[in-house]
Design a protein that fits this description.
With 504 residues, the chain is an alpha+beta fold. The protein has 17 helices and 21 strands. It has helices spanning 8-18, 49-55, 106-118, 153-156, 167-173, 175-180, 226-234, 249-253, 283-292, 295-302, 332-341, 358-373, 385-393, 412-419, 425-428, 434-445, 449-466; strands at 29-34, 63-65, 72-74, 77-82, 88-93, 96-97, 103-104, 131-138, 141-146, 188-194, 198-203, 217-222, 240-241, 258-273, 308-309, 348-354, 377-383, 399-404, 470-482, 485-486, 502-503.
């Protein structure tokens, strides 16, 4: 779910020409090849991994998720207490500074949380409306009062989009300037952002854990073409690259100069369905689509066995995942029957595809062929990746494959975003169910773990019955690095721990 640079061919050409003429030639500067350019450094204005994965090392949060991706640990808040009624949280803010040398205070933390709750541009306001007040009682004490007890509240504070920003800096410079070159609270500061090319980061000497950071800097370089990006690493023009194509894994493993890292993830690929478009608003039609797609064939062909068939929007291994959730069999004949009964036998769909994305293009061809067997025509519309996300948000599609990685440990965030009628039209699917919406809200308030787990089991069943989208597969993160790079690691929520990465 991302914006990408407008010209894949031009970007790949420029990357190949300019990678060797870079600040990254300096010792201790890590180069990372990725598909897309960033879109903003204003945390509240994005829900995209291409942004969050970069500014997780530019900003810091009150509470972090650890390297295992399974538990919370102190961040800018070195400790916290909760009142007996579960409504008041008191955080002790550690002695820290922003990258401009100004003190980072509880007032900045309060400002950041109220901004993500109240700002009209925030994509995450729903998750923070539970906050009644957030007040700095002194420079190092933040007191938050909730409107009602909230089971996922502490987890939401670890969301990269709830990062602590400088109140003075944001108010004096404005969101546009701040979003272009922010004042950092994390391990690195944005030295330069060359739009469409690279983000250049330098070590933040004022970071409270500056002694932990081994690198002098990091460059996130946009190389949209998957194969070009792999060749750049093999040639030593990049230190590392992310989004390794499944088809290249075994070949790259044989290269003695490389390490291929396969890390556990919370990634789930799915087929988005625009419920607002004609027959797709009928549940029976969406169920027919689910029956018409052979997920096992996609896993075998596209992921080369690296993936596993998905049966829920909650990823395998995540909190409250329901292993026994329904998994519709591949049955094109049954799909035809459902379509006929729904008066949609001649269904024709516009399938939005990211051009240049090897996996996306392979999946599109397979899905197109499978749907044809059920009498469904899928017209593939290949668009530049820079257009794809904007078209999805605008609802200018019928079906399109996308993916999600969890941003917090608790399932509330993803559930709210894709099922709870949020401001993003349920992840741009326009899915609506009042019963589901009500249960999403109740699950957020339920503090009994067993009762709450049952609510999420029910939500997974309801989503599958309604076919809010079609679950395709779960897969690991696959990254590649040169042998001289150590500790290039991504936790299951996607965060890169570049504080610990070493370039020898």
């Amino acid at each position: 779910m991302t914006n990408r640079w407008k010209s894949i061919g031009l970007a790949a050409l420029l990357a190949g020409l300019t990678l060797s003429a870079s600040y990254a030639e300096a010792a201790g500067v890590l180069t990372i090849g990725r598909r897309e350019d960033s879109t903003t450094f204003d945390p509240i204005k994005t829900a995209q991994n291409i942004d969050n994965w970069v500014f997780s090392n530019v900003y810091d949060v009150l509470i972090r998720v650890d390297k295992t991706g399974t538990k919370l640990e102190p961040g800018l808040a070195e400790s916290w207490t909760t009142s007996d009624d579960g409504l008041t949280y008191t955080f002790k803010i550690r002695d820290a500074k922003f990258s401009d040398g100004s003190p980072l205070t509880a007032e900045d933390a309060a400002y950041s949380l109220l901004r993500i709750r109240d700002d009209a541009a925030s994509l995450w306001s729903d998750s923070y409306k539970v906050i009644d007040t957030a007040v700095a009682t002194d420079a190092h004490t933040l007191t938050i009062k909730l409107k009602n007890p909230s089971a996922p509240f502490l987890s939401t504070l670890a969301l990269p989009n709830a990062s602590v920003i400088s109140k003075k800096g944001m108010e004096s410079r404005g969101p546009d300037a701040y979003g272009e070159k922010p004042i950092a609270s994390g391990a690195f500061v944005v030295e330069e952002w060359r739009r469409g090319d690279r983000v250049i980061l330098k070590k933040n000497p004022n970071f409270w854990q500056a002694d932990r950071v081994k690198l002098d800097g990091v460059e996130w370089i946009s190389v949209p073409d998957d194969n070009t990006r792999m060749l750049n690493v093999q040639a030593g023009e990049l230190d590392t690259a992310i989004f390794v194509p499944f088809s290249r894994v075994e070949e790259l493993k044989k290269d003695p100069n490389l390490n291929v890292d396969i890390d556990a993830s919370t990634r789930e690929d799915h087929l988005l369905i625009n419920h607002a478009h004609g027959a797709l608003g009928k549940k029976e039609v969406r169920q027919a689509l689910d029956l018409a797609i052979d997920k096992k064939a996609i896993v075998d062909t596209v992921t080369f066995g690296q993936g596993t068939v998905a049966n829920s929007y909650i990823p395998k291994g995540a909190l409250y995942y329901y292993a026994d959730n329904l998994q519709r069999p591949y049955d094109p004949e049954k799909a035809k029957e459902l379509l006929a009964a729904a008066g949609a036998s001649d269904l024709t769909l516009n399938y939005l595809v990211r051009a240049g994305d090897e996996v996306d293009e392979q999946t599109a061809v397979l899905v197109q062929q499978q749907l044809q067997k059920a009498g469904i025509t899928a017209n593939l519309q290949k668009v530049d990746p820079s257009q794809e996300w904007d078209m999805t948000v605008a609802g200018d599609y019928d079906i399109s494959v996308n993916y999600w990685t969890n941003d917090i440990l608790d399932p509330d965030q993803k559930t709210t975003f894709v099922l709870g009628h949020d401001s993003n039209n349920n992840y741009s699917t326009n899915y609506k169910s009042e019963a589901v919406k009500e249960l999403v809200a109740k699950a957020r308030l339920e503090l009994d773990p067993k009762k709450r787990e049952q609510m999420y089991v029910d939500l997974q069943k309801m989503a599958k019955d309604d076919v809010n989208w079609i679950d395709l597969y779960y897969s690991p993160y696959i990254n590649v690095s040169r042998k001289n790079i150590e500790n290039f690691y991504q936790n299951p929520l996607g965060r890169f721990f570049l504080e610990d990465t070493v370039k020898n």
